Amino acid sequence: MDLHARPVAPDPYDLLPPVPSFVLTSVDFTDGAALPAAHAADGGNFSPCLRWTGFPADAQSFAVTCFDPDTPTPAGWWHWSLVNVPATTTCLGRGLGAPGGAELPPGSFHVRTDSGQAGYFGAAPPPGDRPHRYIFAVHALDVPRLDVGPDASPTLVAFQTVFATIARARLTGLYQR
Question: Does residue 67 register a pLDDT over 90?
Answer without folding.
Answer: yes
